[in-house]
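ZP: hey, is the magnesium ion complex queued? I don't see it on the tracker
AM: it wasn't, my bad. submitting now with these inputs:
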Amino acid sequence: MRTVVYSLRRRLLGWLLISTAVIGVVALMDTYREAVKTANVVSDRVLAGSALAIAERVVVAEDGTLQVDIPYVALEMLTSAAQDRVFYRVDGPPGQFITGYQTLPSLPEVAGQSTSFADAVFRGEPIRLAVLRRSASTGVNSVPFVVTVAETTIARRQLTQTILLHSALRLGLMIAGAALIVWVAVTFSLRPLYRLGDAIAERSPDDLHPIGERVPSEVQGLVDTVNSFMVRLQSALDALRHFTGNASHQLRTPLAIIRTQLALARRAATVDDARAAASKADEAVANAERILAQLLLMAKIDAAAQEEARGSERIELARLARSVTAEQVPAAGEVDIDLGFAGEGEYWIRAEPLLVAELLKNLVGNALLYAGRGAEVTVRVSGLEDEVALEVEDNGPGIRPELREAVLKRFRRGGNEAPGTGLGLPIVEEIAALYGGTMRLEDGEAGRGLRVVVTFPAG
Ligand SMILES: Nc1ncnc2c1ncn2[C@@H]1O[C@H](COP(=O)(O)OP(=O)(O)OP(=O)(O)O)[C@@H](O)[C@H]1O
Ligand SMILES: [Mg+2]
């Protein structure tokens, strides 16, 4: 998996720039529209004034025709700006061209409006037209005429461009200013995070005290999570220390016995003494072996707990229990115990078969160790609604009710002479829990002995 490292600061800046750019473009478009409108309003007024000045000079001659004496001032007030060119034409009643540029486009009459404006193209250049409709009076009747004045649009385009450029510059400056502010603000806002990082970095590796630094409320949740994680880590570490302490203590005892017995064997005067010491050492080795096996099993459970998320196999519990029981029959025979299996049918569960076998071996092993010579031990598999139960029952002395809670703790034993670690029942419980099951201790049949019931969810 590739992890992408990203910077909060850059991200915030990116968002700011993108959003202000979008807003800026919209604002500029609006400014442009406004600028065009304003430039038109101003220039149109001059165009209309110019048309009016020409219209004032239209007179009806004695022969009834219209005559006009173009006042050049009227046109000059237009040409004052830029390199714009000015065109005009004056028309009499429909069809009568009087003077000016005959090819200059005009506009159709709009009812109720004496002056109208439009954009057009003349000689390949964009122009703005103002058309003024008037009538000249002869005293008897009035003769309508039309004055059309046009100018190229260079000046107004320059005006709008200047307005646009200025607002774009202002906007750019504002965006740059905002980006700077965000940069500084983010740097300041992130300070508590840097301080937090430094504070954690300065800690010694085994310092798991909660983080006490003051942080912004947005980060408090993260800090709380880390703090509760540290608390759990601390208790896990404590448990591990406790466990390794106990485990090494457990192993030290048989190792010390082995050394002592070996020393005795070396110094033994007779072969019989040496043999006796050797067999005691051998017993201690077997004991150490058993302790190691239990410790390894605990480690295996931890590993399986990590893998559990990936799912476990479907196994048929009756067949597995029958074969584990069969394996233990010779050992049972040695201690004169009648070991049997009961259970018909198939009972499927989801679990790791090796661990379930270890679970059962621990329970049968306990029964063989503690039930006493001549006892009966039964392994039973049965099915409830959505549970499968695995039971190991014996008719030995059992465990006194007040001790039952204690023996479930690691390294706690029932106070008997048989060699052991006190990990068996905790292991059984942990394996059951690993697959969603439970374990409980009950009296055996008729209130005698011990029945250990382990249930698994049916799978
Ligand atoms: N079937 C039983 N009958 C009587 N007492 C039992 C029985 N099973 C367990 N106990 C008691 O419970 C104690 C705890 O058992 P557990 O299996 O946890 O540890 P252990 O047998 O002492 O050591 P380990 O199994 O790790 O070698 C035993 O020491 C024993 O006193
Ligand atoms: Mg045991």
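AM: back. Residues 157 and 362 are 96 Å apart (CA to CA).
ZP: great, adding it to the tracker
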